[in-house]
Amino acid sequence: MFHIFQYQPLRLITQNSLSSMCLKLMLSRPVAFAQIWKSWFSSQSLLGKKNIILMGPPGAGKTTVGRIVGQKLDCPVIDIDDDVLETTWNMSVSQKLQDVGYEEFLEEEGKALLKFSASGSVISLSGSNPMHAAGMQHMKKNGIVVYLDVPTTVIMSRLKSKEMDRIVGLSPGISLKDILQFRKQFYKRWFDIRVLCGGDIAAEVVAEKVLDGVKRYQDSELETFISTRSSRSGRSMEEDSHKLYFSDVVTQGLALDGGLFVPERGLPKFTAEEWQGLIEATYIERAQAILERCIHPADIPASKLAEIIETAYGENFSCSKIAPVRHLAGNQFLLELFHGPTASFKDFALQLVPHLFAYCIPRSCNYLILVATSGDTGSAVLDGFSRLHDTDKQRIALVNFFPEDGVSPIQKSQMISCQKENSWSVGVKSDFDFCQTAIKQIFTNSDFTGFLTVEYGTALAAANSINWARLLPQIVYHASAYLDLVHQGIISFGSPVDICIPTGNFGNMLAAFYAKMMGIPIRKCICASNENNVLTDFIRTGVYDLRGRKLISTFSPAVDILKSSNLERYLHLIANEDGRLVTQLFNQLENHGHFQLQKDLLGKLQQDLVAGWCSDEDCLAAIHSVYSTTGYILDTHTAVAKVVADRLQDRTCPIIISSTAHYSKFAPAILRALRIAEINQNPLSQLHLLSSYSALPPIHWGLLETLKKTGNGDHQVCAADMSALMSHIETLIQNHFM
């Protein structure tokens, strides 16, 4: 077996002799002693007996970066090509490849890895090492694998000036680009940490990123969560000792004090070079790179997270680009968020979150997910949880509460048709605000939740945007939209864009603001309301006032919301995480129906946000106008955003309008906007009529399939009463888990 111990620069000494040497050095040369001790302690505390294993394509700079990291840690550095393979074979790597050929070379290379042993070292793998499964499993047993993720175009440029005879698989019929793309699947399988290396980033900078990544990997204590209603200065010792991590907040949903969870140290920030390294990446690759930085590997390892993301977005979206950006007119671009299975932006989170949830929850307990929806969330969450493995469905069930008379006919048909053996839809004789408030009250009712746990072994969890995990996938598509504009040559990286989003619950808007905080150059975040314009009034005046306001039923029902739950997270952020102030504001809203921001906070808010609203009449007019001039049909929510964007943009930069749903979901309103006189009340007939227009985009495939199904055509209806809702919940638990 090949050992590395001969490379160790330090000889073995006894503890007594070490103590004696340290004492002499400390007395004679205290500065030198401090430097040596700091270097030794840094290396030992960071590495211990583990290795840092650098992995990446040829030309990624693994050898150079490895030497710098080893120098910083004062530890052995091993290059697998030079120090192991050529030593073992007694010939150059290129000669070995030429002698035995591609397949035999990989096998011989893997055998050499299996015989290799080291500890406390920095190891640079060859570009082809990750293609040998047994060899990599052996290496990972005592190492942290760091993937130097360099864009393919950068690698191609670097390798132009280098000899290519050491690249495994290169032949006259196979291009270098093909080889690099093929190998990505193996790199993704093995790494623990990804380091984004965009552009001409210096090796010294990459080395620092490697060390920072290893420190983060080894210390999950840095990434804890707090409630928006907790205050650092006012937290008890018990609260400080009971730390909450990503896996905790995914399963818990809502904080015990009624607040919402946020990361204690904020979101990670990407450098401009890191973002530029993702310009040529696919949507799935961007999602992996972003979410890895938001979810600590102690909660979900990078390889498992990659598997979950592939499952969520790999085959469930009808467009290969997942969230394409389409030019509409002038400086306006549409971010199409409706290519998922249920035709709305909610699919981005709810194809992913069920798998995150299933991975994070303890195996010893059953979980019932509670959801409130104003329309789109219902079918999206039902579809998402229906795709879990059968074993997970046995311990995870879901109940979806929606306003019985407050959603479109097609939305209701979707929710009823998407019911499965572990998920149900319950219509409530009230509006969305009641449904959402009821769920929050149920979560904070410790008597009821405790009873369910003791009596039925079942805990409650949330899948609404009050759950932190719901927001993360939305950050991804806002960032991806900007990168797409750069990739298409519309803008250069660093140029600003505005974003306009139809919003009622503020989650989608908050995700855009988070993307801005993480380094995406978003200038204005424009909130677009319908006639339930409480958010618009608040952003303009600083007064959040529900007194005397009644919910108005509009053609854009997903934003028929008066109580904007995610606004709490935003206010917590601009109030410098003052949980006491947030508690005061939202208690006042709950008890008195209004609150007012201080002048300084309103100033901060208005630096970030602008807002406008749109009537139903203007909404339908916009749909007709856009179709007449472009042949493209907007859904009612996107039309609201289009109207507001037209009014508020200054046309000095591109504006990305979030197209949050497919127009097929709101067929009656769309047909009315297109001036159709007679509208058949059958949802399927309405879709067939719309399809006859041959408009862009085409009729949504998932909606047609859902409406053609003859399965579950029934659902339960519940009075707007807390006791009735809790009774429904208990009955569903009894029927499913007992």
Structural features, described:
- InterPro entries: P-loop_NTPase, Ser/Thr_deHydtase_PyrdxlP-BS, Shikimate/glucono_kinase, Shikimate_kinase/TSH1, Thr_synth_N, Thr_synth_N_sf, Thr_synthase-like, TrpB-like_PALP_sf.
- It holds the Pfam family Thr_synth_N.
- This is THNS1 protein.
- Keywords: Amino-acid biosynthesis, Pyridoxal phosphate.
- One of its GO terms (cellular component) is cytoplasm.
- Strand 16 (497-502), helix 24 (507-517) and strand 17 form a beta-alpha-beta unit.
- The model is unreliable at 1-43 (pLDDT under 50).
- The chain has a 6-stranded mixed sheet, sandwiched between helices. Strands 3-5-2-6-7 form a 5-stranded parallel sheet, with helices on both faces. The protein has a 5-stranded parallel sheet with strand order 15-12-13-14-22.
- The two termini are 56 Å apart.
- Among the domains are: 51-218, Rossmann fold; 315-340 and 477-709, 3-Layer(aba) Sandwich (Rossmann fold).
- The protein is an alpha/beta fold and 738 residues long.
- The relative contact order is 0.09.
In short:
The chain has 738 residues and is α/β, with parallel strands linked by helices.
Low-confidence stretches: 1-43
Distance between the termini: 56 Å
Summed over residues and divided by their number, the pLDDT gives a mean of 89
- Give the strand order, joined by hyphens, for the main sheet: 10-11-21-16-17-20
Label the CATH architecture of the domain at 315-340 and 477-709: 3-Layer(aba) Sandwich
Q: Features of this protein?
A:
49% helix; pyridoxal phosphate binding; 34 helices; Shikimate/glucono_kinase; 738 residues; Rossmann fold; 5-stranded parallel sheet; TrpB-like_PALP_sf; alpha/beta
